[in-house]
Amino acid sequence: MNPHASYKCAARLLMALAAMTSILLISGCGNSSSSTPPPNPTGFTTSSLSGTYVISVSGTDVNTTASEVGPFAIVGTIVANGSGGITGGTVDINDPVNTGVNIGTAVSSSSGYQIGQDGRGTATIVTSAATFDFDFVLTSTSNGLISRFDDSATNIGAGSGTIDLQSSATQSSFTALSFSLSGADTNGSLASVGTVTLNTSGTIASGTEDFNENGSSSVSTLTGLPVTGGQVVLASSGTSGTALLDSSFGPGAFAFDVWVIDATHVKWIETDTSTSGVLLSGDAFTQQTSFPVGQVVFTLSGQDASENPFVAGGYATATSSGALNPGLEDYNDNGTSVTGRSFTATATTATPGRYQITTNGFGNASVGNLAFAAYPSSGGVLMLEDDNNGLALGTAYAQTATSFNASGGYGLNLSGSNNVNPNINGYAEVDDIAQFDASSAVAPAANMTGTLDENDLAYQLVSAAFSGVYTPDTNSDGRGSIVATTTGTLIGGLTLEYYVVDGSNILFIEQDANQISTGTFQPQSSSSASAAVSHRASSMVRSVVRPHVVLRRK
């Protein structure tokens, strides 16, 4: 592949979000019809997916004809009939290197899904623009985590996201929204966070937005920009509304479709073609104007100033002013891992709903004091690095629990980059879907057992047993480590640091030398809807890489 293709590979990281079917073995040439029985049955069936769901996936796509790699995003609805059929739906596809921008594309009734007892499944979504294969794991009948699993001769792609049962919302539900968007333009990675205040018709009365373009914010005066116009207008359930954000960044106003999940949360995907070369997608939540007080946990992902992959996680004690003191950071920068690094941070606010955070001791392998724009919302504090030392995007959550249930099933989604793919020169996307059962066994005994599926861009692995050991910190701070082994990953296992948010969401970062990722695992309930905090792949930004894809088949 041409290493100077028109798009640098800038797919979003990480972590949480989607759903569907029974277990198919995956080979390097695509899906197989044979299956293996789930080791940890939890009571899911095909009927666990029934209704209209919002599906959101973003990642990396390959155009094998033009030898290009680029970002893609899919957001929209699917209608599952509870018996393996997808009878309809509408999706927006933004795929600059393949299909282009396809808005309001109908989902064909020839689409379908399968679900195994452990909640893992597969789905095929057929549209006139393209056909997409997915692996997923349900965390409830309302939520799931999903990965794209396309690896045929002409359709290669990887990505992560969520699936959420759609409920209704009215225009009056959203008087102010805070948002987190990520993607790419022709210069590399691009991310934005901000907030807008709306009148009763959805017109933007005021707002503030921050951008980070490929690791640079303040040099390009991309911070604290006023949103000078636009609107966020909802539509009826099952269809998309629209949004327009107008600020002084780049090519002008950005147009989006808006897909309602509930009265506090919507998904956005860019739909305009006038801002050529720009792709943004993500989440918006009802705005909160004050910082959560008490311990918060967070993960961030993106790149350092040299465009190497970077992830960080940890916890801190927060005040209502946004100060963080004391704090603890773990990070992995280009395979260099540091754990337990102490930091402090101060915050100022000049605009309602926006905090400027200045850190002391929080950084990556080359810079010790990173800075962030932060916007509190019902979906957590949405954060974007706004210095010139890299691009890190993520979320901080108020912590309400310090341990997870040691007697249940969990769904896991991981998204990141590794540099060991035999078909890729350099870093390329990796996405994992897994289900495991936790137990109260004490380390070093294995207390996590399940099954994992991995999709490395242009190289898929067969579903394999997943066995790990989780070890909580001794001081009950909600942090701990996981060491897992499996033949289902290119690197032979996973080394993770995890951070408990509450009973429904546990975040993690990866500390391996050849793989840098973030993700989430969430408890499963096959009998009722989960209250899980949606894992937002769209709030994770991958490093910019320039892969050379060699389409060798195993």
Detailed description of the structure:
The chain has strands spanning 26-27, 30-31, 50-63, 68-81, 85-95, 100-106, 111-115, 120-126, 131-138, 143-151, 156-165, 176-185, 188-198, 204-213, 225-226, 229-233, 241-246, 254-262, 265-270, 279-286, 294-304, 309-318, 324-333, 336-351, 354-360, 371-377, 380-385, 390-398, 409-418, 428-438, 448-456, 459-460, 464-472, 479-485, 493-502, 505-510, 515-523. With 554 residues, it is mostly beta strands. β22 and β23 form a beta hairpin. The radius of gyration is 21 Å and the shape is globular. A nine-stranded antiparallel beta sheet has the order 15-14-13-12-20-19-18-17-16, with no helix packed on it. The protein has four domains: 26-165, Lipocalin (Beta Barrel), CATH 2.40.128; 171-286, Lipocalin, CATH 2.40.128; 294-398, Beta Barrel (Lipocalin); 409-539, Lipocalin (Beta Barrel), CATH 2.40.128. It is built from no helices and 37 strands.
Q: What layout of secondary structure does this protein have?
A:
Blueprint: E1 26-27, E2 30-31, E3 50-63, E4 68-81, E5 85-95, E6 100-106, E7 111-115, E8 120-126, E9 131-138, E10 143-151, E11 156-165, E12 176-185, E13 188-198, E14 204-213, E15 225-226, E16 229-233, E17 241-246, E18 254-262, E19 265-270, E20 279-286, E21 294-304, E22 309-318, E23 324-333, E24 336-351, E25 354-360, E26 371-377, E27 380-385, E28 390-398, E29 409-418, E30 428-438, E31 448-456, E32 459-460, E33 464-472, E34 479-485, E35 493-502, E36 505-510, E37 515-523
Antiparallel strand pairs: 1-2, 3-4, 3-11, 4-5, 5-6, 5-7, 7-8, 8-9, 9-10, 10-11, 12-13, 12-20, 13-14, 14-15, 16-17, 17-18, 18-19, 19-20, 21-22, 21-28, 22-23, 23-24, 24-25, 25-26, 26-27, 27-28, 29-30, 29-37, 30-31, 31-32, 31-33, 33-34, 34-35, 35-36, 36-37
